[in-house]
Specification:
Number of strands: 23
Mean pLDDT: 93
Keywords: Monooxygenase, Oxidoreductase
Pfam family, one: Pyr_redox_3
CATH class of the largest domain: Alpha Beta
Bound molecules: flavin-adenine dinucleotide
EC number: 1.14.13.-
Structural class: alpha/beta
Protein name: Flavin-containing monooxygenase
Enzyme class: oxidoreductase
CATH architecture of the largest domain: 3-Layer(bba) Sandwich
Largest sheet: 6 strands, parallel
C-alpha cells in the first residue's frame, strides 16, 4: 500500500479516482489494478477501513468469512466463521498491501464536476484533481441520522447516536434507552444488558423480522443469496412459513411477528435482524421493549403510547444518510431519496464515467455484493480504454 498525505502527482493519462477507502473503494481499486488501470483511492480519514475502526467493540460480521471476502484475497481461516471487527480492519489493511493500492489519505472530496469527457474532483486544501472516471464509494452508512424529535434541542439527558457507542462500560449501573431495532440497535441493547447496565429498554416503531444467524449450521446469508432473485411475493410467503420454526415468537414480550413480508421490508431498505443476543435478552426481561419515541421534553422521553420515561442515557440507533447531495447532487444522478440512480457497471445517462458502489443493502450480504460490483465496474472501465 502506498499512502501519502500529499496530493497525487499529475498524470498525462488521468487515473480513475475512487472516493472512499472502505471495502467498496478498495475492491474497485484492486480490480482496476488487476486490469492494468491506474486507480487512486482518496480517503478522508488517516487510514483504510475507517468505518470498521469506529464500530462498536463486540461487532462481528454476520455474513460468513467465505462470503465476505473481496476480490483477490481470501479472509484468513484463522479469523473464524464470523469475523471480528478488529480482524475486518486487519484484513482491509492486508488487502491494500497485497494489491499495492495507491491510496491518498487525509483527502476529502467535496464536489465532483464534469469537464468534457473528464471529471474534476474538488478536495481538501483546495486540491483539484482530474480523473478519466470516478467511482463513488463513500458508504451507505455515511452520516449518522438523528430524528428531528420535538424537544431534541433542549433535551437535558444524554443523547448519542449509535455510531458513538463502543462498549457497555460507560453505562454500567445506568438506565439506558436504545432507540431503533435494526441490527445495530438490537446488538447494542443486548451488549448493554450483558455488560452491566441497570436497565435496558428498546424503543420499537416497526417490529423487525428476526432471524437466527444459522439454523442447523446453515447461515441465514445463504438463504438470502438463494432467494435474492425470486419474486418478492414468493419470498414473503416462504419467509412466513420459515419463520414459524426458524424465528422465535416474542409476542408476549412486545415483539409480535411483523405483518409485512421479509422481502418487502428488505426492498424498502430494512434487512432482517440477525439474532446475536437480543432474543435471549428480551425473553429473560433484560431488555424491555417499549413504544417508539415521539418527543423529548426536558429530562423526559415521551413514547408513542403516551408514557414518559427518564433514562440516564438515550442511544439512537436510527440509521444513516448517504449524504451524496453535496458531492454529486448537482449532476442529476440521485433519486428523490438521495440514492444513486445506477449501480455496478451502469453509469447515469447524463454522467458517463461516474460509477457508484455500496449504496444498496441487499439480503445476500453487502460485502459479497461490493465484491461483485467491483469486478463489474473494473471490467467496464477497462473495456472502455481498449
Ligand atoms: C455495524 C455494521 C455492521 C455490518 N456488518 C456487515 C456484515 O456482517 N456483512 C456485510 O456484508 N456487510 C456488513 N455491513 C455493511 C457493509 O459491508 C459495510 O458498511 C461496509 O463497510 C461498506 O463498505 P463501503 O466501502 O461501501 O463503505 P465504508 O466502509 O463506509 O467506507 C466508506 C469510506 O469512504 C470514506 N469517505 C466518505 N466520504 C468521503 C469523501 N467525501 N472523501 C473521501 N473519503 C470519504 C470514509 O471515511 C470511509 O472510509 C455492516 C455495516 C454496519 C454499519
Amino acid at each position: 500500500m502506498v499512502t501519502t498525505p500529499q496530493a497525487p502527482p499529475s498524470q498525462a493519462v488521468h487515473p480513475v479516482y475512487v472516493i472512499g477507502g472502505g471495502p467498496g473503494g478498495l475492491a474497485v481499486a484492486a480490480t482496476l489494478r488487476a486490469r492494468g488501470v491506474r486507480a487512486v483511492v482518496l480517503e478522508k480519514s488517516d487510514a483504510v477501513g475507517a468505518s470498521w475502526r469506529g464500530h462498536y467493540d463486540r461487532l462481528r460480521l454476520h455474513t460468513t468469512r467465505r462470503l465476505s471476502a473481496l476480490p483477490g484475497l481470501k479472509i484468513p481461516r484463522s479469523y473464524g466463521r464470523w469475523v471480528a471487527r478488529a480482524d475486518v480492519v486487519r484484513y482491509l489493511e492486508a488487502y491494500a498491501e497485497e494489491h499495492e493500492l495507491e491510496i491518498v489519505t487525509g483527502v476529502e472530496v467535496f464536489r465532483v464536476e464534469r469537464d468534457g469527457t473528464d471529471w474534476v474532483l474538488h478536495a481538501t486544501g483546495g486540491r483539484r484533481m482530474v480523473g478519466s472516471a470516478v467511482v463513488v464509494a463513500t458508504g451507505y452508512n455515511h452520516t449518522p441520522r438523528l430524528p428531528a424529535w420535538p424537544g431534541r434541542g433542549t433535551y437535558e439527558g444524554e443523547l448519542r447516536h449509535a455510531r458513538e457507542y463502543r462498549n457497555p462500560v460507560p453505562y454500567e449501573g445506568k438506565d439506558v434507552l436504545v432507540v431503533g431495532v435494526g441490527n445495530t440497535g438490537a446488538e447494542i441493547a443486548a451488549d448493554l444488558a450483558e455488560g452491566g447496565a441497570a436497565r435496558v429498554r428498546l424503543a420499537v416503531r416497526t417490529v423487525p423480522h428476526i432471524v437466527r444467524r444459522t439454523t442447523l449450521g446453515w447461515p441465514a446469508q445463504r438463504s438470502g443469496i438463494l432467494v435474492r432473485r425470486l419474486p418478492v411475493g414468493l419470498v414473503d410467503l416462504l419467509g412466513r412459513g420459515l419463520a414459524r420454526f426458524a424465528s422465535p415468537d416474542l409476542s408476549a414480550h412486545g415483539l409480535p411477528r411483523p405483518d409485512t413480508g421479509l422481502a418487502t421490508r428488505t426492498r424498502a431498505g430494512a434487512v432482517p435482524v440477525q439474532d446475536v443476543g437480543l432474543v435471549a435478552a428480551v425473553r429473560s426481561g433484560k431488555v424491555e421493549v417499549v413504544a417508539a419515541v415521539e418527543a423529548l421534553d426536558g429530562r423526559e422521553v415521551v413514547l408513542a403510547d403516551g408514557s414518559r420515561i427518564t433514562p440516564d442515557a438515550v442511544i439512537a440507533a436510527t440509521g444513516y444518510d448517504r449524504a451524496l447531495e453535496p458531492l454529486v447532487g448537482h449532476l442529476g444522478v440521485l433519486d428523490a431519496a438521495g440514492r444513486p440512480l445506477t449501480r455496478g457497471s451502469r453509469c447515469p445517462r447524463t454522467a458517463p464515467g461516474l460509477y457508484f458502489i455500496g449504496f444498496t443493502n441487499p439480503i445476500s450480504g453487502m460485502l459479497r455484493e461490493l465484491a461483485r460490483d467491483a469486478e463489474k465496474i473494473a471490467r467496464r472501465i477497462a473495456k472502455g480504454r481498449r
